[in-house]
Amino acid sequence: MKPISTLRRGLAAATLAAFTTLPASAEPADLNVVVRLADGATLPPEAMMQVSLLDVSRADAPAIPLAARAYRIDTLPAAIRLPYDTDDVDERMSYAVSASISMDGKTVLRTTTSFPALTRDAPERPEIVLEQIAPVMMESDMPGIAGIPWQATEIGGRLLVVEDAPTLAFDADGRFALFGGCNRFTGSAEIGAGTISFPEAFAGTRRMCPEPRMTLEQTMIDALGAATGYVRNGSLLSLTNEAGVTVLRFNERPE
Fold first, then answer.
1. pTM of the entire structure?
2. Is the dihedral of CA 37, 40, 41, 42 positive or negative?
3. How far apart are CA 177 and CA 197, in angstroms?
4. What is the spatial distance between Cα 238 and Cα 246, in angstroms, rounded to a whole number?
5. Biggest alpha carbon distance in the chain?
6. What is the pLDDT of residues 77-102, one digit of tens each?
7. 83 in Cβ contact with 90 (< 8 Å)
8. 160-176: per-residue pLDDT in tens?
């Protein structure tokens, strides 16, 4: 039988060996990246930029995202730090940084070439370039809808055929005047670059009209309440809901 001191030394050695064979814990790190805008490209106002670190080792397979983060960007170029996990990085593999910027759910800027990072003699601080792949509609580029009398021609996909149809007009500050088919209403709408929203309640007259007119008026008000966007094409104006479905169509009313 071994002496107790020998057993203790053996147990301590075994315990130490077990700890030394455990994998090293991963350490967080930051990848410093400079993001630039290609010549002639336009940055949307208050842009949200998505930057990703990708494993691009396999040429015949999609890139594998290792890290991603969103950044609010007011101007470019900009220096950002992208956190990643060092345990995910293998010096034998290839990695790249990509970025994109979307506007109204549509990608308008993105990297179009591969920018190496971390391994295989990649630069310590990658500099990536965002290319324009879709036009950026600035508020100043949107055709205005103020100062024009608009007459409803379609509500909820149904052609409106009626005498004295509902009308809508805006001033430059977003205040509107609405004839709903029976009563007249006023209020303030919030109008942006292709976006619009109306107040929950309209101030207006309280006349009682024959039922078809009252029904038309309520349908008109409900459609305006569902509107979140607009598209103007010359003398035509469409209001759309959150799903992009047209809820109201107008023609410019002739004088």
1. 0.51
2. positive
3. 14
4. 6
5. 113
6. 999 999 999 999 999 999 999 999 98
7. no
8. 988 899 999 999 899 99
Q: Is 100 exposed, middle or buried (0-12, 13-18, 19+ CB in 10 A)?
A: middle
Where does residue 253 rank: exposed (0-12), middle (13-18), buried (19+ CB within 10 A)?
Answer: middle
* Among 112, 145, 106, 128, residue whose Cα is nearest residue 32: 128
Burial-class residue 122 by CB neighbours within 10 Å (0-12, 13-18, 19+). middle
DSSP H or E stretch at residue 151: strand 150-155
Give the Cβ contact number of residue 166 at 10 Å: 26
The C-alpha atoms of residue 188 and residue 196 are separated, in whole angstroms, by 11
CB 65 within 8 A of CB 54: yes
Spatial CB neighbours of 225, under 8 Å, sequence gap ≥ 6: 198, 200
